[in-house]
Amino acid sequence: MEPLHEPVLRWYDAHARDLPWRRPDATPWAVLVSEFMLQQTPVARVLPAFPAWLERWPTPAALADAPSGEAVRAWGRLGYPRRALRLHAAATLIVEDHGGEVPAGYDDLLALPGVGEYTAAAVASFGFGARHAVLDTNVRRVLARAVQGVALPTVSVTRGERTLAASLVPDREPARWAVAVMELGAMVCTATAPRCDPCPIADRCAWRAAGGPPYDGPPRKPQPYDGTDRHCRGALLAVLRDADGPVREELDKAWPDTPQRTRALAGLLDDGLVVERAGRGYALPG
């Protein structure tokens, strides 16, 4: 039987989406920006923000030269705006420690603010063609079903999962395998209602062979948003992004629940996403 990666790569050649950060001319910086944006944010929301960001800040040095508040402003409604601050901090460190060039080494990438194991492996792989097991949610789900025979992977990545994923990375075109299996999970082997008929490895999927047993692990409840502190933080940041200067009353109008607004604003100040201008109100940093 042919190796698992071969049918997946053939499928990818025929069905891959045209995503700008996966094109051959995408720079390592473009890859890094995309990985920050795609953390907990759907591709559809990232697609319009990504080119605008790179047009404004085409290099790490360009972003590092800008105030951090401008990064928060440009982040718009991608959600989890602390990512914008971390990307700005990462750009600054790239300029200071790596001559303005995104480092190729996994350990150097891992040392950047906001970069964890997955992002370091993804940038090393997609940006530099290095051989790494790139374990995002989609990849983990494909491997859990196809090889381990379970509906969904564990909540956290296990040592055994890393070992399995590393053993499946081919010696030739490892980055192409990484993106191909990721795309398969995003487009075919989805979390709900997977489309097994067009799957290139359906005939060797352990989960399908077992009859598709349901997930029997801990409950996975979607996180609420409406009315939460995160919702409040987003409403306050939206006001500050649109403001020409410090504001105060506008924030009161944006969220009428005073205790929750006060709590959310305190959190934004602690995170460095907002600064207080003495006697004038609140603004984005920088």
How is this structure best described in words?
The chain is mainly alpha-helical and 286 residues long. The chain has a domain at 229-283. 55% of the residues lie in helices and 2% in strands. The chain is built from 15 helices and 2 strands. Strands 1-2 form a two-stranded antiparallel sheet. Helix 9 packs across helix 11. The longest helix has 17 residues, at 82-98. The model has no long low-confidence stretch (mean pLDDT 95).
Give the helices and strands as they follow along the chain.
HHHHHHHHHHHHHHHEE
> With helices defined by DSSP (H or I, 4 residues minimum), what is the helix count?
15
Largest sheet composition: 2 strands, antiparallel
Name the helicity range.
Answer: 40-55%
Approximate shape: globular
Beta fraction of the residues? Answer: under 5%
Major β-sheet strand ordering: 1-2
Number of DSSP strand runs: 2
> What distance lies between the first and last C-alpha atoms, to the nearest angstrom?
59 Å
The whole-angstrom Rg is: 21 Å
Low-confidence stretches: none
Q: Structural class per helix/strand content? A: mainly alpha
Average pLDDT over all residues: 95
